[in-house]
Design goal:
Strand content: 35-45%
Radius of gyration: 15 Å
Bound molecules: cobalt (II) ion
Distance between the termini: 32 Å
Shape: globular
Structural class: alpha+beta
Number of strands: 8
Order of helices and strands: EHEEEHEHEEE
Oligomer: single chain
Number of helices: 3
Number of domains: 1
Strand order of the largest sheet: 2-3-4-1-5-8-7-6
CATH architecture: Roll
Largest sheet: 8 strands, mixed
Length: 141
């Protein structure tokens, strides 16, 4: 086995920090009134059972996430761990290349292949158990 280093992509930005919340409207209002954060995008992603609000922070986002149904992974997360940081999204120039690189390095991926994310992005998730306890999302714009 040869050692595989990263190749074929660039890590360009923290795309977003995702925070699981029970009350999306209350969280949006809290970020607005305390930090002046403005909603850049809202979307309901039925396949993931979540509704999100992206708040602008320079070229990155805070992504407020709330479940839209009881069997959503975010609902399970809230039940087990309560509100708080859910995952970190890293912006990469190629989701496919980054996913391949992480897999080659032994990371356990949740998505076998890149898939559509919110606001027209391409995304893939890497399991927290193989990433020092943090759920990682690879995001290609
Ligand atoms: Co995300």
């Amino acid at each position: 086995m040869t050692s595989a280093g990263p190749g074929g992509f660039e890590l360009t930005e923290i795309d977003h920090v995702a925070i699981a919340v029970r009350d999306l409207e209350a969280a949006i209002e809290w970020y607005r009134s305390t930090l002046g954060a403005v909603v850049a995008h809202r979307e309901r992603i039925e396949s993931d059972g979540v509704e999100e609000a992206l708040l602008n922070v320079a070229d990155s986002y805070v992504q407020l996430l709330t479940p839209t149904r009881d069997d959503s992974p975010v609902a399970t997360y809230l039940e087990k761990k309560g509100e708080g940081i859910h995952h970190v999204g890293f912006r990469v120039s190629s989701c496919a290349a980054a996913l391949e690189s992480m897999r080659a390095a032994g990371a356990r991926t949740i998505d076998a292949a890149p898939r559509p994310g919110s606001r027209g992005t391409t995304v893939a998730f890497v399991h927290p158990k193989s990433a020092f306890g943090t759920l990682i999302e690879l995001v290609e714009e």
